[in-house]
């Protein structure tokens, strides 16, 4: 009798454990299914967001790209350009009226393909509306050091969010801001040449005399700024510069500098103590591993560097890490033909990937249309 009771207790206990074990496995299985479905849902949402971002970047210009000259462009389709130039501003005759230009340098193209020009020898900033036959003076116009005058402006950047123009007023040794026709001095006593903005709201200025690039937080100019490149006297070492002219800042806040007298382009990563040579650096010359007094630079989202190679009358494209670049525009040497450049200074792209060049010694801005 005792054995029978014990056997019944054992069977009852076994059935109880079996039911409990079955219940636990079902609960675990349901939990696993829920987790897997959750991860799949998150993955789909992430893929959709990335896809939409890619579509936006490919078919349009993002807000950052429109706002700042310094933002990288989409390089996936920017490969080759028609070699015949189309004049979009000025043209062959030097002058002071509304339609000619005089030794222009920095340029900026906005989302509507309007062209903004630092018209250096005319001491003014000019805007040429898309397909216009003459420009409109939007800053300066007379040589001088009064608040509403400019003296040899060399570069500009448009802050469209604040509806203002920031100008390197080279001859007056100051950085100006023009907003709604009202001029303001942002930074004084600086031998400025190039200006740039990044998407984090910092203004960068190259000082050719101190051979350095400094940056300021937008709106906070009551300080000396922070040195982000150079600042170690004039020289050709990797921690030095010799006449930094134009600058470009990418989304990682790396600063690219046309190191004019060293005939090279330098890249200084954020917080770096020295830079790296990413174009030129092999002495002045016409070979494909050389540059001659480089001016404006633009970097695309693949890290390809476009350089206005002033002394060689061409635009070069350099891939970082390569020993030599390739000629993009100006393969026919200097001259007055439509397929040639003569002293290219400014450089910019529109949202479609058309290339604009300040052809300074022919007193015009020309466009090269993208073909692939």
From TrEMBL:
NHL repeats lie at residues 285-315. It comes from the Eukaryota. It comes from Adineta steineri. Keywords: Glycoprotein, Membrane, Repeat, Signal, Transmembrane, Transmembrane helix. The chain crosses the membrane at residues 27-49. This is Uncharacterized protein.
